[in-house]
């Protein structure tokens, strides 16, 4: 699916379309997007369930060369004008021809900024250090206790401040073997946290991964850190060792505290 889109100028729309890729195109019977605008209020039905009645744009036209379904901005803007500042959520749905099931939706975020908005301030990455060598289960080190526990790689950063006192959300952006992040990076929503554990896939062993963090305010003002490089080598798959202070911030049973 298309990555997060930032609309910083009044009439600015990116050259890229909204798009989505499907694993088995021959099984797609219907694919569409629904768009939730910032001002949309969720209404309750007679059964007290909350219902989303959103603009719906169907598109069964596959771009054979790019192997993806695309929605042009002219057809999108006929349904939603994107003039109001804030976050627009684009939900993707696909219906399977064989099972008639609709797959769990995926999402692209589109931010409409304003000229008055002041963007988040600079902040720094903390951990893992640049050029670290990790396992997909954590830092390469040995932990005597709970050797069979499930451990996670811990990412952290200093956090940003917003001049308008807006709430900020953070995304961790990871790119395999591509320091330009120009392909399809993995983006993980860390919400408001500045310490975040990630269960990295085993398939990343022997890979070089570039990572950075983006802070975004409610209308799309943003700051991205410089990228760091980490490498993965899963020999022995040793566990993660953290300080007692950090282990207290997360689930203690997941970690082996560092001994003083």
Structural commentary:
- It is a single chain.
- Strands 12, 13, 15, 16, 18, 19 and 20 form a seven-stranded mixed β-sheet that branches. A five-stranded mixed β-sheet has the order 1-10-9-3-6, with no helix packed on it. Strands 2-8-7 form a three-stranded antiparallel β-sheet.
- It is about 5% helix and about 40% strand.
- The chain has two domains: about 110 residues; about 130 residues, Immunoglobulins (Immunoglobulin-like, Sandwich).
- The chain has two helices and 22 strands.
- With about 260 residues, it is mainly beta.
Strand and helix map with partners:
Elements: E1 5-7, E2 18-20, E3 28-36, E4 43-44, E5 50-51, E6 56-58, E7 62-63, E8 68-71, H1 73-77, E9 86-96, E10 106-112, E11 125-127, E12 132-135, E13 138-139, E14 153-157, E15 169-176, E16 186-191, E17 195-198, E18 208-216, E19 222-224, E20 228-232, E21 241-242, H2 244-249, E22 256-257
Parallel strand pairs: 1-10, 12-20, 21-22
Antiparallel strand pairs: 2-8, 3-6, 3-9, 4-5, 7-8, 9-10, 11-14, 12-13, 14-17, 15-16, 15-18, 18-19, 18-20
